[in-house]
Amino acid sequence: MMKIQKTSLFFILGAIVFYLIVQYLMSSGLLTTFFTTIILIGGVMAIVSLGLNLIYGFNGQFSLGQWGFYAIGAYTAADITFRWYQMHTAQALVVALLAVVFAGIAFFIVGKVVKAIKDFDVLSIFALYLVVTVFFVYLAVMLGQPLTQPVTAFFMQMPPQVSMQVIYILAVLIAGVLAAEISFIFGLPVLTLGSDYFGIATLGFTIIVKVLLDNSDTLLGFAEMKGARGMVGIPKITTWFWVFLFLLIVVGVVRNLLHSSYGRAIISVREDEIAAKAMGIDVGQYKNLAFVLGSFFAGLAGGLYAHINGFLHPDTFNFIKSFDPMIIIVFGGLGSVTGTVVASFGWALVLEGFLRLILPQGFETWRFVVYPLLLLVMMLLKPNGLFGGVEMPFLKQTVPPLPESLLEEPKKEVSQ
Questions:
Q1: How far is CA 303 from its chain centroid?
Q2: Of 11, 247, 347, 409, which one's alpha carbon is 20 to 30 angstroms from that of 98?
Q3: Which residues contact 407 (CB under 8 A, 6 or more apart)?
Q4: Spans in the chain with pLDDT lower than 70
């Protein structure tokens, strides 16, 4: 039988207790709707920030594009559920699902071609991926039109609450995959840049996404998104259960990844790229892996966030807000999963919760002054962050004990 380590058992029990306590406070009304929303946003920010910590804290790539992928995930999931909830059609679900599947097929085909022909430069590879992917996505859109009606009829056979939950989960997952696929294509040329230039390029990406969202109803043709006026009518489906479940899964994935050979390669790139190359590590591959996985987490978080308040506005995703996850991972400690999660909930409770209530009416915006001051004081007193170099036992990599057979052999040799 497989034995569960004590640290894993304590983590699971602690997570269950934490979930039940918060759920009881919400269900009993001891937590107001305001603070319930704050806690949900804190959990969502933890998922976004864990993705950025994987990119920057563990892989060493200074990125300001996390907020752009967060926005892509939010609007993608919102459009899928909006069309079902308001228009009673699964068209967006079918087209988006086929698009991400066909894009994955395109990546596979182009990847085989690039490996077979090794004379491609970076820009040629990027152009090839882009052209083939656009073609496959166009095929997905064309194929999705005739499939919409039977899929809609299938979901109509379900009870309304069940169909809404199923479409919601699919929408969140599709949002994450779409963000990951866009990050893969975007990262092909951009990840070849140095860290500072990479940060500038990703910031530019966030600005581009925000501008596209401002004109989503005219330029992109999504009238339901209403562009700069903001998207309304999104079903409020995200609950503490879904936020906690996805956060738990993301923490588990990050923990297992970092403890694997892939995780050690990702960290080695942060420590010294030249040494990593000398050891035979494909630096570009592991940079792309961290970037894509971190963007996938951002897309998931965006899908969850879109269904908290039932409203999305492009100003929520402007480039100033893109510094929030960066501040969180610096505050919690670069390379610390525990610090990222704690700092995310602290960020939500302090910045969006307590400071709003403590500051006099009309001075709420001063919280954007108080919060940086707290960060400045912390940087002076504890430069490594609140949990720099500290992890809960479950997240630490433990060395397994040697088998008894290996321990007994030296004793036998001595006795002989």
A1: 10
A2: 247
A3: none
A4: 1-4, 195, 362-364, 366, 397-416
